[in-house]
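Task 17 of the worksheet. Students: predict the tertiary structure of the chain below and write it out as structure tokens. Keep your answer in the requested format; marks are given for formatting as well as content.
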Amino acid sequence: YQRRVREASTIPLNFHWFALQNPSTPAIFLTLNGVVLLFLFFFMRIIVGNYYGYLYTVQFLSRREELPVWGWVFIAAYVILGFLNLYWFTTLVRYAKKKPRTDSQTTPSTTKKVQ
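Model answer:
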């Protein structure tokens, strides 16, 4: 259950990617979708994901004597994924701080040079 909850940020991410591929996408859609994406990514992956990781770590460490090797791998994976999610969130924030595309702008691949 908790893995699927954290993936809630993937839906606006996919919409954002598709919208960026279409130069006629309104800038307001990109802006609103970006806000939703940042909120869901932060809340679901950073807050909820780390909370569940903490709960599982406490549960595993309470039985430290009988903890199998895969339990230690699981704890290490949660720590690594937590840092990776922080890295991706900071990357998303840096991207969001860039000047957003206006409706009159197009991507370089769609512009034609007139000679």
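Marker's comment: The first helix runs from residue 2 to 6. The helical segments are 2-6, 10-21, 27-62, 69-97.
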